[in-house]
Amino acid sequence: MRAPLDTVVQIETPEHIVFEHRLAGPARRALAHVLDLVLCYGVLLLVGIAILFGVVGGAALSGELSSLAKASVGLVLLLVFIVQWVYFAAWEALTGRTPGKRALGLAVVTTTGRPIGVREATLRNLLRAADVLPVGYVVGLACQLCTQRFQRLGDLVAGTMVVVPERARGGSPIVLRPPATAAELASLPQTVRLDPEERAAIELFLRRRGQLGAARERELAELIAPVIADRVGAAGMDPVRLLALVFDLAARAGRDEGPVSSRGGS
Amino acid sequence: MRGAARISRPTEIAFTEARRSDWEELEALVIKATRRGLSRFDARDTARLSPLYRNVCADLARARSSRYSAVLVDYLDGLVGQAHTVLYGQEGRLLDGLLRRREDNDPLHLAFPRAVRRRWRAMLLSFALFFVPMFIGMGLTIADPHLAFRVAPESMLRPLAEAYTHGFDGGRDASEGVLMAGFYVNNNVGIALRCFALGVFGGLGSAIVLVQNGLTIGAILGYVIAQGAGDNILTFILGHGSFELGAIVIAGGAGMSMGWAIVAPGDKTRLASLQAVAKDLFVVVVGAALMLLVAAGIEAFWSPSAVPSGIKRAVGGGFFVLVVLYVLVAGRGERAR
Question: Could you say which of A117, A192, B214, B251 is the most buried, measured as most Cβ atoms within 10 Å of its Cβ?
């Protein structure tokens, strides 16, 4: 298996299965944060406007605040506190993600890949006060760039990371259309050797076929088709069709991966 | 060898067809758990979740070793990841996590003073870093009241001193109480939490916040005393001071502990030491924040009320003794285990 990219963390479950989480980078996280701030301060602004029109009215201009207005200012201050210190921790403790993170498909998990609890959520969001220094999360950004998992100080202290959980969407298998004719099958050997990289490349190509122009499709296929044609002894066949056929044969054969690299030899 | 392998492995299509129903069942369970929580699972769902998850783990291993298509492997990878999150989740409910399901199993009201006492060196240091500058500030402004204008504008201090000179005979109406409660929560709890968080820079941040706040509060106090309203302001502060100043000292001590964990990690790596200490300090910070919420309530509604100052002082003294006893004694001796 190839070494994973460094934006992917591998997590081993107690069942000794390794699965992967994609890490969220600073840009995506910043965007999620901005969304959260817009949401919070948007609500605050609405409450403020409502108070201004509903409670204070014209009296505000004349100087003396009514008692109701004073009480509502106290309420606004309480809301500011909630936005600054409670909002993020509470959302993450309950669901593992704030609304902004949800919108951008992010989630907070522990570095062992488990969902976070109240303690992790609280600690990582308290430490925001340190990450935000000196202005605009400079400390947090510097820390993210220095750590392997894009962790800011809060993540380091709480032992958490922000990931992009893969959407579990089943892809349909690739179907050969039109089905192979007898003549085509006769011109190919019964088993086809493809190494894993060839197989992955051909699969990617076949899945993208619908989005490519005919000329580009042919151009791409011609990059690899001659090598395969040589190996299976099927010269002169249309390169795109050849790749589709070969892939279909390989997929039907279960595992026939061939030698680790079949390019130089055979 | 390759021949043998081919016989034992189904083709990708056959494999997918044979296993798809399990994958879809697990996917449905995962969606149900993330949308509505594990508590909504009935007995059958609960019984199915773990065998399904283990089977899909095995499927993922097989799909990888058989080099099935990337889409299939990615799909199973994602499914295993999501099911893992559901199955190995911890402390799902907010209140459970806060009150009961912590590892040491101590209830919060006992865990808090115990954790504070375990860190008594940091707490003492924090105490000194706050109160020494406070008394210095107070001494300086009593000697020369004009020094106070360096930490706070004259336009704010003069009315303040005036207000305390008049005392609290009029009391405060409830609406002003709400206003001030909002202000105290926002300001004081914020200061305490920031004081803790900045401890991550080797404890320096906490020290700076403590000294700065100590000096400022001391200077203002000294100024008001110099204007002849000392009795009134001390009565005012005594009511909530034990909660408020105590909590700030405790939060600062927690910050210093966190910083010390990086400076002197002992036999752990710095990161591991930091994480272990922070985990332990969680309960301290929550406790300090709760103390400050209590303080905000007292400061807004009781301290400025029109109750005779004799009673206020008695109650304030009572609070002080209670807080000190609680922090020093509660949970001592009767260890849970």
Answer: B251
